[in-house]
Amino acid sequence: DTKYEYLIVGVKGEKQNVGLIQLNRPRAFNSLCSPLIAELCQAVEKFEMDDSIGAIVLTGSERVFAAGADIKEMQHREFPNVYKNDFLGSWDKLAKCRKPTIAAVNGYALGGGCEVAMMCDIIYAGEKASFGQPEINLGTIPGAGGTQRLVRAIGKSKAMELVLTGDKMSAAEAEKAGLVSKVFPVDQLVNESIKLAEKISSHSRVASMMCKDAVNTSFEVGLTEGLKFEKRLFHSTFATADRKEGMTAFLEKRPPKYTD
Ligand code: CAA
């Protein structure tokens, strides 16, 4: 089994079908140094390839989800180096994961922490969570999606305000704005997120991956193209055993048994 320095990784759920990844760099407020991101990409890829896993939960500690990219690591870097190495480029792996992902955010999700949460498909938050893009306070700007995904999640005015001021948004505000889908007491958040992941895992794998693919396509293409893509994927479910099983089970009034 892989040993991680900055992560705690395990399999959860009654049916052992949920991958749980916990960011674990407590001395640096879970700041996202390059080796941590490399481990995160590796852990996500392993769950992605594991047929028994239907959904992935990403969390931090009760105090902090992640306080952003590692400021110590960035302090002395120069333009040619970050440009040539495409600094932060590897973070995309998480956004490209094809299985459903849930961010369970307790405490701070700032800068890169907020951006990593937004790379997940669903965000659940603990009551004391806070979200923000404080890069402006460091003389820089968000570099892993903060100016793009936040706008799509909460609209221009709120996103612009957060990015231009560096102010934090509470869990309650984030839920109202649509960044977060539900808020839970701090000590129940991870369990509730695992329950959600178990529910997602109980459905047809192929169908849930297609749902994710289709929803994410809505961010990339115009409505006509998006509707066409959705329709073609829908048609393609008629080539799966799960589609036949799902409809047959409904009509026979019994629970479905998915195999694809
Ligand atoms: N990078 C490196 N170290 C960090 C860090 C970060 N992003 N955030 C916190 N730390 C470290 C602090 O330096 C401190 O270390 P020492 O104990 O060695 O001094 C330790 O974590 C605890 O931090 P604080 O003493 O500041 O704790 P606090 O409770 O007073 O405040 C906080 C907590 C509000 C999260 C505050 O630490 C903070 O504002 N952190 C920076 C947040 C930030 O600016 N994030 C954006 C980074 S840039 C980025 O992410 C770019 C991108 O788009 C990807």
From TrEMBL:
PROSITE patterns listed in its UniProt record: ENOYL_COA_HYDRATASE (PS00166)
EC category name: lyase
InterPro entries, A to Z: ClpP/crotonase-like_dom_sf, Enoyl-CoA_hyd/isom_CS, Enoyl-CoA_hydra/iso, Enoyl-CoA_hydra_C
Keywords per UniProt: Fatty acid metabolism, Lipid metabolism, Lyase
GO biological process: fatty acid beta-oxidation
UniProt-recorded Gene Ontology molecular function terms: enoyl-CoA hydratase activity
EC number(s) reported in the record: 4.2.1.17
Superkingdom of the source species: Eukaryota
A Pfam family: ECH_1
GO-annotated cellular components: mitochondrion
UniProt record similarity statement: Belongs to the enoyl-CoA hydratase/isomerase family.
UniProt name for this protein: Probable enoyl-CoA hydratase, mitochondrial
